[in-house]
Design goal:
The strands form 5 sheets. A 5-stranded parallel sheet has the order 2-1-3-4-5, sandwiched between helices. It has a 5-stranded parallel sheet with strand order 7-10-13-6-14. The protein starts with 8 loop residues before the first strand and ends in an 11-residue tail after the last helix. The relative contact order is 0.07. Helix content is 47%, strand content 13%. By secondary structure, it is of the alpha/beta class. Strand 4 (82-86), helix 4 (91-99) and strand 5 form a beta-alpha-beta unit. The protein contains 20 helices and 16 strands. It folds into 4 domains: 9-134, Rossmann fold (3-Layer(aba) Sandwich), CATH 3.40.50; 153-315, 3-Layer(aba) Sandwich (Rossmann fold); 319-394, Helicase, Ruva Protein, domain 3 (Orthogonal Bundle); 398-475, Arc Repressor Mutant, subunit A. The longest helix has 33 residues, at 112-144.
């Protein structure tokens, strides 16, 4: 009986073409999709390029053995089940395979019924494990990011990206305007990492003078200079087995940058007055609101250090690109402030809420929090009817708001013309294709940088994201912040 398993892919890795052919025919009759590999290297390449649900793996293969493939799968944390199929009947070998994560061990010639049952059970168990992992991930996300308030797609994407990198040791560069919550994300990444039991050391790079940099960053011995009355442990050593967070890294003095680069390269520090170097084991997260492109071009920031910092970039969007979160955050800050000060939470009028959504928030979340707190204190009665916002110069200019609404974009191929508004494009397939090609060309020209792509097209980043979703590009290409 053919099973309904059309979405399940089985990879058969065996150096025997006869075995590959026989097993492939059997699997196809059972309704599985099948890929084959004739050696260990080809097996790994196939796994990297395809979505594999089950692997049937021979142990004795050229280039890379089945054991080497199993070790690779374990190192890379692949979760699909592996069924070993080999001509050797060796109990110790079987035990070793199971320890490396194999689901089952079969000897040749393969019993067809046994294989069919094993595949069915392996897939069922794998599906259950996947659901459990998804639930664990969801619970972990709620626990670690419980202080990140927001339901917009922009902030959800940031959380998802942070979840993906947190368990690695990659250096993370968080970019975003002041007040967007960069340090909160840095702390969350640390809290979800394997270093969570270690220290989280925060450094404001803009506050470190060149004269004190060596002492603050690397430490000193007692008596090594005038005023050194005791030994001092530097920031990097304090972060040993934990995470060091270099906030406002873009404001770091150029001379200090060279010293930080050396520590990142060698993972060793030397205290002032000390002859020997000390190894340090830390994970680096840095943050900035500056544009490194201009800083590197003007030689105020080292390009080699930048590439060390940006192993994994994370962009935190400003509040004006998170329209759906403004009211949510306002109510959160209101309830938080009232609870801390034993105040009965007031209501907020619709007019007042609309004024929050119309404002541009140059100070981002920090500014919103301050506005809410002042409104609670200054209110008259039980309802907040107005917020004391700065002048309308901070609101969206009328022409800018209209352009955002209409969604006009310059043609990426040299700005040769204008694309029609979203509503008109939807009704014209040819024009719709023109806009799609313009976005793709701009994306390629900007090297996958989301902000630069939006600038080249003459639209805001939020408009670009909306257009990408409409064309379903977010599932087919990855755009960097």
């Amino acid at each position: 009986m053919v099973q309904n398993v059309s979405k399940q892919m089985v990879l058969v890795a065996d150096d025997s073409s006869v075995i590959r052919t026989l097993i492939s025919h059997l699997l196809k009759r059972l309704g599985y999709d099948v890929l084959t590999a004739e050696n260990g290297e080809q097996c790994i390449e196939t796994i990297e390029k395809n979505q594999i649900d089950v692997l049937l793996l021979d142990l004795n293969m050229p280039l890379k053995s089945g054991m080497e493939v199993l070790s690779y799968l374990q190192d890379q944390s692949y979760l699909f089940p592996v069924i070993i199929i080999t001509a050797m009947e060796d109990i110790s070998q079987a035990v070793k395979c199971i320890k490396l994560g194999a689901y089952e061990y079969l000897t040749k010639p393969v019993d067809k019924q046994r294989l069919e049952i094993l595949l069915r059970n392996a897939l069922a168990e794998s599906g259950l494990k996947q659901k459990i992992n998804e639930l664990k991930k969801e619970l972990k996300q709620k626990d670690i990011f419980n202080f990140i308030v927001g339901a917009s797609s922009a902030i959800k994407q940031c959380v998802e990206q942070a979840m993906q990198v947190m368990e690695t040791d990659m250096n993370v560069l968080i970019n975003g305007e002041s007040g967007t919550g960069k340090e909160l994300f840095a702390q969350a990444i640390h809290n979800g990492s394997k270093r969570k039991q270690g220290p989280f050391v925060t450094i404001n790079c803009a506050a470190i003078s060149n004269d004190l940099a060596d002492s603050l960053l690397f430490g000193h011995l007692k008596g090594s200079f005038t005023g050194a009355n005791s030994d001092h442990t530097g920031f990097f050593e304090q972060a040993d087995h934990g995470t060091i967070f270099l906030d406002e890294i873009g404001d770091m003095n150029i001379d200090i940058q060279a010293k930080v680069l050396r520590v990142l390269q060698e993972k060793k520090i030397r205290r002032i007055g000390e002859k020997r170097e000390r190894p340090v084991d830390f994970r680096l997260i840095s943050a900035t609101h500056r544009d490194f492109t201009e800083a590197i071009a003007t030689n105020s920031f080292r390009a080699d250090l930048y590439y060390r910092l940006e192993e994994y970039p994370l962009y935190i969007p400003p509040l004006r690109e998170r329209d759906d979160d403004i009211v949510l955050l306002a109510r959160h800050f209101l309830n938080e402030f009232c609870k801390a000060n034993n105040i009965e939470p007031p209501d907020i009028s619709t007019k007042a809420l609309n004024s929050l959504k119309a404002y541009r928030w140059p100070g981002n979340i920090r500014e919103l929090q301050n506005v809410i707190r002042r409104a609670v204190i200054n209110r008259k009665g039980n309802t907040i009817d107005t917020f004391n916002l700065p002048s309308a110069s901070h609101a969206a200019p009328e022409h800018e708001a209209a352009a955002e609404k209409e969604g006009f974009a310059d043609d990426a191929a040299g700005n040769a013309g204008k694309l029609l508004p979203d509503g008109d494009v939807q009704g014209h397939p040819i024009l719709k294709d023109m806009e799609l090609q313009a976005i793709l060309k701009a994306y390629k020209q900007c090297g996958g940088n989301q902000t630069k792509t939006a600038e080249l097209l003459g639209i805001s980043r939020s408009t670009l994201i909306r257009k990408m979703k409409r064309f379903d590009l977010t599932k087919t290409i990855t755009i960097n912040p």
